[in-house]
Design a protein that fits this description.
The protein is mainly alpha-helical. Helices cover 46% and strands 1% of the residues. A two-stranded antiparallel ribbon has the order 1-2. The longest helix is centred in the N-terminal third of the chain and has 34 residues, at 7-40.
C-alpha cells in the first residue's frame, strides 16, 4: 500500500506545476512579441521603451489645422442657440463663399453641413464671447476682423475667404455621404432620390434658421406618438406645411415616393395640415424690419425641386446681406 504524501510533498508538487505553466506562458508571449517585431522590422532588436517625441507647436498646427478652430456650435453653447442676426449674416456670408468655391470650381457637395462643421478661429471666438458677455457693450456689436487665414482639408480657400469656413472632412466616418442632421435633410433624401450640390443649400437654410431663431425649422419627432407617425412622415408633413404640396415629378423621383404619395403626386397620409409661411414663422422671432428679406432668402433656398434652389454664388448678392460689413 503506497504511503500517503505529506503536506510538504503536495506543496512542492503544486509549486513545480505552477512554475511549468508560468514558463510555458512566458515562452509563448516572447514568441508572439518576437513575431510582431519581425513583421514590423526585419532586424531582431530587443524590446525597449521608446522616448516620447514632442512636436513643435507650429508643426502640430500645420498637420492638424482643424484643431486650431472652434465651431459655431461651440459659440452657441456659450452665448445661446439664438445668435444676433448680424452675426448670423456674417456666418452665412462666409459659408456661402466656401460653398460657392466648392460647387462652382469643383462641382462637389459638402454633404454634411451643421453648426459643428462651421469653424471660427479661437481669437474671434474669444472676442465674440467677450462682446456678448460684456454688460456695457454697445447695442450694435461690431464683427471681429479675420485673425488668420482659414484652411479646409480638401481644397484651398480663396484669398478673400474670411475666418468662418466650411471644413470638408472626407475621412470622418459617416453612414451616408450627405447630411447626418436628421431634421435638416432635404426632400430628396427622404424620398431616396439622387442628391446633388443643391442639397447643401437646403441644409444651410435649416442651419441658418436655427442660428437666427434658436429653434429647429423642422422637428421630425414632432407629434409622432400623438398621431402615430414615423419621423419621416412627420418630416414630410412639416415640409408640405412650409413649402407647399410636392410636385408630382418630385414626389415620384425616389424609391420611397410610392410609399407616401399616390400616382398623381398627392400624399397618402390622412392627417390635418396647417400651412404656414416663413414670414408668419419669423414674425415673433426676429425684428420686423428684417422679416421680408430673411423670409425671401430662406424661401429661395427651400425649394422642393432641387434645380430651382438658389445657388450659393447668387445668394451672396441677396439683399439680406446689404448691411453686412465687408471688412468683417
Amino acid at each position: 500500500m503506497p504511503a500517503t504524501p505529506t503536506s510538504k510533498t503536495i506543496s512542492r508538487r503544486l509549486k513545480k506545476i505552477l512554475k511549468t505553466f508560468a514558463w510555458r506562458f512566458t515562452t509563448k508571449r516572447c514568441r508572439r512579441i518576437q513575431s510582431a517585431c519581425s513583421s514590423n522590422d526585419s532586424r531582431s532588436e530587443p524590446m525597449s521603451p521608446r522616448p516620447e517625441v514632442y512636436i513643435p507647436g507650429h508643426v502640430w498646427d500645420s498637420q492638424n489645422p482643424s484643431e486650431r478652430y472652434a465651431s459655431v456650435g461651440d459659440l452657441c453653447a456659450h452665448i445661446g442657440d439664438k445668435l444676433p442676426l448680424h452675426l448670423a449674416k456674417w456666418i452665412a456670408r462666409d459659408v456661402l463663399r466656401g460653398l460657392a468655391n466648392l460647387h462652382e470650381s469643383r462641382g462637389k457637395a459638402h454633404g454634411d453641413l451643421s453648426q459643428d462643421c462651421i469653424l471660427i478661429s479661437p481669437q474671434d471666438m474669444k472676442m465674440l464671447i467677450s462682446q456678448f458677455y460684456n454688460v456695457d457693450a454697445q447695442s450694435q456689436h461690431t464683427m471681429p476682423q479675420s485673425s488668420e487665414m482659414s484652411h479646409t482639408e480638401t481644397h484651398p480657400i480663396p484669398s478673400n475667404m474670411d475666418t468662418v469656413v466650411v471644413p470638408v472632412a472626407p475621412n470622418r466616418p459617416r453612414h451616408h455621404p450627405f447630411c447626418d442632421s436628421f431634421g435638416m435633410r432635404p426632400p430628396e433624401a427622404l424620398l431616396d432620390a439622387p442628391q446633388g450640390i443643391s442639397a447643401d443649400i437646403w441644409t444651410l437654410a435649416c442651419v441658418l434658421y436655427e442660428l437666427i431663431t434658436g429653434e429647429s425649422l423642422i422637428d421630425p419627432f414632432f407629434q409622432t406618438l400623438e398621431l402615430g407617425l414615423t419621423p419621416e412622415e412627420s418630416h414630410l408633413i412639416q415640409i408640405i406645411e412650409i413649402c407647399g404640396e410636392f410636385p408630382r415629378d418630385v414626389a415620384k423621383s425616389g424609391t420611397n415616393g410610392c410609399k407616401w404619395f399616390h400616382d398623381d403626386g398627392t400624399i397618402r397620409l390622412e392627417t390635418t395640415y396647417y400651412p404656414v409661411t416663413l414670414k408668419d414663422i419669423l414674425h415673433s422671432r426676429i425684428e420686423p424690419s428684417e422679416i421680408t428679406h430673411t423670409a425671401d432668402m430662406l424661401r429661395s433656398m427651400l425649394r422642393l425641386r432641387p434645380q430651382e434652389r438658389a445657388k450659393a454664388v447668387d445668394l451672396l448678392n441677396h439683399p439680406w446681406f446689404h448691411d453686412v460689413d465687408e471688412r468683417g
